[in-house]
Amino acid sequence: MRRIFRRKTVIVIIIVGLVASAAAAYVLFRSDGRVSDENRPSAGNGQQEATPPENDQTIRILLTGDIIAHDSLNENAESDGGYDYLQFMSTFQSVFQSSDIVFCNQSTLIGGDTFPITGYPSFNAPAALARDMAAVGCNVINTASNHSFDKTQSHIDANVQIWEQQDVFAVAGQNASAEAQNDIATFTVEGKTFAFLAYTTYSNVTPPNSYGVNMYSRERASTQIAAARAAGADYIMTSMRWGTEYADSVNSFQKAEAAFLAGEGVDIIVGHGPHVLQPVDRLSRAGGGETIVWYSLGNFLQTQLEPEALFNAIGVVDINLSSGQTTLAYEPIYMHYEWTPQERARGDLLQRKNLQLTWLDEADDLFARSPLSGETSIEQQATRIREVLNRFTPVELIDISQ
Fold it and tell me: Which of 36, 103, 302, 317 is the most exposed place for a label (fewest CB within 10 A)?
């Protein structure tokens, strides 16, 4: 797929009057917002197969989970007076750079090296992490998180400035001012304008101001969605920090807010926060069509302990520009580190070494050296991933590089 051009624009919110009454649309669909069986397209009446037609122009969107700057990640990245995180993600660089849109989730603060570098539970990562996220191919970045105010507004200001120095499409979630919070990030791919919105539904501390991080509310989301459409957005992507940690089930709050956002006209909802994968769904969208919901993309680059937090997937959304239809797919990934039984028994977290992210189907040799190799298997995790993602709607396993 060829990118026509890259552009990042910022449109100041225009407060517009919202036209009420989407009630008629709900007559056609189930009350929870999910597409009912009688209205869901089948493979025989319009829903495309998972591999997009070769002759149709397609925008490919890749979706990744949390990037968490644990102490062990920072320590393994440190070398020659600097930090190199790209070494852990290099397997994905060619695939990311050949895709159109690559969503990445900065789930912990990147305030930079002018402040002390710290890990769990109060994070601050060096600027090199943002640099290397951009270098691997991340071009749409969420920064809204429960960890956004782990430090101070000065750290957030620095985080905003660090991303302004990177060549990416859009960054949203943290703000240096109340005025900046009212800006809508947009970018254009293949002649289509995308708006990117980002929110967190919770914070580890009470935010000291109303603008440093985008705390989710229906009022704020509704206003920004309307402004994005008024600014000419063809597609609206919304990042949501939500959900129950380490639960692969979707809670009632997630379902309710996903239905609300679909009712407001959001096209793609990208969820994160639980650190494990959750199901994908298609909801009825205001004005017709569907809203794609990835309830949780789990983790990407990090060194958590639970197997379900280390075996994850990259989500794929292909948009067929001829029909406007979307296909959904995934490919499993594995976050590797080595840790001796003795180090693990005494909880020496900084001894986790030899970090590497890789595709799950290429992980046999690495996983044989994992501390988890006696507790689970690649086959068990591949089955779990497939069953979780497909719980609500079909999502096909593919080889993204092909």
Answer: 36
